């Protein structure tokens, strides 16, 4: 598996993400917890052949859940909001 696919796990397609894409030309991805902004920028540029202007990251910490007696938790994950250069598009998101 290539390094880029280890960094970029999946796109996050939500209503807020659609608004960001339409108004600010930004994309939202779930990324590897150990990746930094420069690695995310290089991976997006290489995978989608676009120019990235900035990357914002947000760590989503463990969320504890309870179902009756059983207690558990959800995993931690990292979200990246990537701003693209004006005019660049990713066809993957066009039909959404």
Note down, in words, how this protein is organized:
- By secondary structure, this protein is an alpha+beta fold.
- It contains three helices and six strands, in the order H-E-H-E-H-E-E-E-E.
Summarize the model shown:
The protein has helices at residues 3-7, 15-24, 37-48; strands at residues 8-11, 26-31, 52-60, 64-67, 70-73, 77-84. The chain is α+β, with helices and mostly antiparallel strands and 96 residues long.
Strand content: 35-45%
Distance between the termini: 27 Å
What CATH architecture do you see? 2-Layer Sandwich
| Structural class assignment | alpha+beta
Q: Keywords for this structure?
A:
alpha+beta, Alpha-Beta Plaits, 4-stranded antiparallel sheet, two-stranded antiparallel sheet
What is the topology?
Layout: H1 3-7, E1 8-11, H2 15-24, E2 26-31, H3 37-48, E3 52-60, E4 64-67, E5 70-73, E6 77-84
Antiparallel strand pairs: 1-2, 2-6, 3-6, 4-5
